[in-house]
Write a structure and sequence with these properties.
The chain is mainly alpha-helical. The chain has one domain. Strands 1-2 form a two-stranded antiparallel sheet. Strand 1 and strand 2 form a beta hairpin. The chain is elongated. It starts with a helix and ends in an 11-residue tail after the last helix. Keywords: Membrane, Transmembrane, Transmembrane helix.
Amino acid sequence: MVVATFVRGLLSIMQLRIYAMYRRTRRILMILVFAFFSEVLDRHCNHLENHWSSKPIVTDESSSFPGKHLCTFSGINTDFTYLFIPAFCFELLLFFLAITSRVSLNNMRERKATPGTSSLRVNS
């Protein structure tokens, strides 16, 4: 739970940075908000489907951890990578938005081209 909250916080910071890289464009904000809430909604739907259904919980003794029992849901097959596709798509969107941002590159070039200016600027 702590790790998931930490990762969510990092992704939130990444979203805010990308939003700032695109000079707080409303279109980018809408894309990021829609993608974020789509991923969160999918995660919650999967959680509800797997935890509140009538599928029994099966406990098996783990071969990796002798003497310990692991709880699994009998309804999830062993190939459960489909659960991570929405998160992967959202993170891929963040990656491509960060890579394709020419605004930040132009700002960096502008700062280097103007001698004697400070790196702290106020947008006017």
